[in-house]
Amino acid sequence: xxxxxxxxxxxxxxxxxxxxxxxxxxxxxxxxxxxxxxxxxxxxxxxxxxxxxxxxxxxxxxxxxxxxxxxxxxxxxxxxxxxxxxxxxxxxxxxxxxxxxxxxxxxxxxxxxxxxxxxxxxxxxxxxxxxxxxxxxxxxxxxxxxxxxxxxxxxxxxxxxxxxxxxxxxxxxxxx
Length: 176
Fold this sequence. Notes:
72% of the residues lie in helices and 0% in strands. The protein is an all-alpha fold and 176 residues long.
Protein backbone atom coordinates (compact mmCIF):
# COMPACT_ATOMS: atom_id res chain seq x y z
CA UNK A 1 0.00 0.00 0.00
CA UNK A 2 1.22 3.48 -0.87
CA UNK A 3 2.12 5.66 2.15
CA UNK A 4 -0.24 8.56 2.91
CA UNK A 5 0.40 11.92 1.26
CA UNK A 6 1.35 13.37 4.66
CA UNK A 7 3.95 10.65 5.20
CA UNK A 8 5.36 11.17 1.70
CA UNK A 9 5.48 14.95 2.22
CA UNK A 10 7.31 14.52 5.52
CA UNK A 11 9.79 12.19 3.79
CA UNK A 12 10.37 14.79 1.05
CA UNK A 13 10.82 17.52 3.67
CA UNK A 14 13.31 15.53 5.76
CA UNK A 15 15.15 14.12 2.75
CA UNK A 16 15.53 17.57 1.18
CA UNK A 17 16.55 19.05 4.54
CA UNK A 18 19.28 16.42 4.93
CA UNK A 19 20.46 16.87 1.34
CA UNK A 20 20.77 20.65 1.62
CA UNK A 21 22.41 20.35 5.03
CA UNK A 22 24.95 17.98 3.43
CA UNK A 23 25.53 20.18 0.37
CA UNK A 24 25.89 23.43 2.27
CA UNK A 25 27.59 21.95 5.32
CA UNK A 26 30.19 20.09 3.28
CA UNK A 27 30.76 23.25 1.24
CA UNK A 28 31.42 25.23 4.40
CA UNK A 29 33.64 22.51 5.88
CA UNK A 30 35.48 22.08 2.58
CA UNK A 31 36.21 25.80 2.39
CA UNK A 32 37.37 25.91 6.01
CA UNK A 33 39.70 22.93 5.72
CA UNK A 34 41.10 23.41 2.21
CA UNK A 35 43.49 26.24 3.02
CA UNK A 36 42.21 28.28 0.09
CA UNK A 37 42.55 25.45 -2.44
CA UNK A 38 39.21 25.77 -4.27
CA UNK A 39 39.62 22.46 -6.13
CA UNK A 40 40.17 20.60 -2.87
CA UNK A 41 37.15 22.33 -1.30
CA UNK A 42 35.02 21.37 -4.31
CA UNK A 43 36.26 17.78 -4.18
CA UNK A 44 35.31 17.50 -0.51
CA UNK A 45 31.91 19.05 -1.24
CA UNK A 46 31.19 16.71 -4.16
CA UNK A 47 32.20 13.50 -2.40
CA UNK A 48 30.10 14.36 0.66
CA UNK A 49 27.12 15.36 -1.47
CA UNK A 50 27.24 12.22 -3.62
CA UNK A 51 27.49 9.95 -0.58
CA UNK A 52 24.69 11.77 1.24
CA UNK A 53 22.49 11.63 -1.85
CA UNK A 54 22.87 7.86 -2.20
CA UNK A 55 22.03 7.36 1.47
CA UNK A 56 19.05 9.72 1.43
CA UNK A 57 17.56 8.13 -1.70
CA UNK A 58 17.97 4.64 -0.22
CA UNK A 59 16.32 5.76 3.04
CA UNK A 60 13.44 7.85 1.70
CA UNK A 61 12.90 6.38 -1.76
CA UNK A 62 10.57 3.63 -0.52
CA UNK A 63 8.36 6.24 1.20
CA UNK A 64 8.10 9.16 -1.22
CA UNK A 65 10.26 8.27 -4.20
CA UNK A 66 12.92 10.62 -2.80
CA UNK A 67 12.40 13.22 -5.50
CA UNK A 68 14.17 15.90 -3.41
CA UNK A 69 13.95 18.27 -6.38
CA UNK A 70 10.98 20.10 -7.96
CA UNK A 71 12.19 19.19 -11.46
CA UNK A 72 12.03 15.50 -10.56
CA UNK A 73 8.55 15.89 -9.05
CA UNK A 74 7.21 17.84 -12.03
CA UNK A 75 8.64 15.34 -14.49
CA UNK A 76 7.26 12.44 -12.47
CA UNK A 77 3.81 14.08 -12.52
CA UNK A 78 4.09 14.70 -16.26
CA UNK A 79 4.93 11.01 -16.76
CA UNK A 80 1.99 9.93 -14.56
CA UNK A 81 3.92 8.78 -11.48
CA UNK A 82 2.78 11.51 -9.08
CA UNK A 83 -0.80 12.75 -9.17
CA UNK A 84 -1.00 16.40 -10.25
CA UNK A 85 -3.18 17.17 -7.23
CA UNK A 86 -0.34 15.91 -4.95
CA UNK A 87 2.43 17.75 -6.78
CA UNK A 88 2.04 21.09 -4.93
CA UNK A 89 2.39 19.25 -1.60
CA UNK A 90 5.68 17.69 -2.75
CA UNK A 91 6.92 21.05 -4.05
CA UNK A 92 6.06 22.81 -0.79
CA UNK A 93 7.73 20.08 1.30
CA UNK A 94 10.89 20.24 -0.85
CA UNK A 95 11.07 24.04 -0.70
CA UNK A 96 10.52 24.12 3.06
CA UNK A 97 13.04 21.29 3.50
CA UNK A 98 15.62 23.17 1.42
CA UNK A 99 15.32 26.30 3.56
CA UNK A 100 15.44 24.21 6.74
CA UNK A 101 18.51 22.32 5.49
CA UNK A 102 20.41 25.51 4.70
CA UNK A 103 19.43 26.94 8.09
CA UNK A 104 20.58 23.74 9.82
CA UNK A 105 23.96 23.81 8.06
CA UNK A 106 24.45 27.45 8.97
CA UNK A 107 23.51 26.77 12.59
CA UNK A 108 25.96 23.83 12.77
CA UNK A 109 28.79 26.12 11.68
CA UNK A 110 27.77 29.16 13.74
CA UNK A 111 26.78 31.27 10.75
CA UNK A 112 23.82 33.58 10.23
CA UNK A 113 20.87 31.21 9.92
CA UNK A 114 19.61 32.58 6.60
CA UNK A 115 21.40 35.05 4.36
CA UNK A 116 21.34 36.10 0.74
CA UNK A 117 24.29 35.11 -1.41
CA UNK A 118 26.39 37.91 -2.84
CA UNK A 119 27.84 35.62 -5.54
CA UNK A 120 26.19 36.45 -8.87
CA UNK A 121 24.91 33.41 -10.77
CA UNK A 122 23.46 34.60 -14.05
CA UNK A 123 23.86 34.64 -17.80
CA UNK A 124 23.17 32.29 -20.68
CA UNK A 125 26.05 29.95 -19.79
CA UNK A 126 24.56 29.51 -16.30
CA UNK A 127 21.08 28.81 -17.69
CA UNK A 128 22.47 26.31 -20.19
CA UNK A 129 24.54 24.63 -17.49
CA UNK A 130 21.49 24.26 -15.23
CA UNK A 131 19.57 22.78 -18.17
CA UNK A 132 22.31 20.22 -18.87
CA UNK A 133 22.66 19.31 -15.19
CA UNK A 134 18.89 18.87 -14.77
CA UNK A 135 18.36 17.06 -18.07
CA UNK A 136 21.17 14.66 -17.20
CA UNK A 137 19.74 14.05 -13.74
CA UNK A 138 16.32 13.24 -15.17
CA UNK A 139 17.82 10.99 -17.85
CA UNK A 140 19.80 9.07 -15.23
CA UNK A 141 16.75 8.65 -12.98
CA UNK A 142 14.35 7.45 -15.64
CA UNK A 143 16.93 5.49 -17.60
CA UNK A 144 17.91 3.50 -14.52
CA UNK A 145 14.36 3.25 -13.16
CA UNK A 146 13.28 1.38 -16.29
CA UNK A 147 16.13 -1.11 -16.47
CA UNK A 148 17.91 -1.17 -13.08
CA UNK A 149 15.68 0.32 -10.36
CA UNK A 150 17.96 -0.88 -7.56
CA UNK A 151 20.80 1.17 -9.04
CA UNK A 152 18.98 4.53 -9.15
CA UNK A 153 20.36 5.84 -5.86
CA UNK A 154 23.94 5.00 -6.82
CA UNK A 155 23.57 6.34 -10.36
CA UNK A 156 22.07 9.61 -9.12
CA UNK A 157 24.79 10.06 -6.50
CA UNK A 158 27.48 9.36 -9.08
CA UNK A 159 25.91 11.68 -11.66
CA UNK A 160 25.59 14.59 -9.21
CA UNK A 161 29.17 14.05 -8.04
CA UNK A 162 30.33 14.23 -11.65
CA UNK A 163 28.04 17.14 -12.58
CA UNK A 164 29.76 19.30 -9.96
CA UNK A 165 32.83 19.00 -12.17
CA UNK A 166 31.57 18.95 -15.76
CA UNK A 167 28.99 21.75 -15.57
CA UNK A 168 29.26 25.39 -14.60
CA UNK A 169 26.14 24.86 -12.48
CA UNK A 170 26.50 26.51 -9.12
CA UNK A 171 23.19 25.46 -7.66
CA UNK A 172 25.01 22.77 -5.69
CA UNK A 173 28.45 24.32 -5.59
CA UNK A 174 30.42 26.35 -3.11
CA UNK A 175 31.68 29.82 -4.00
CA UNK A 176 33.96 30.03 -7.02
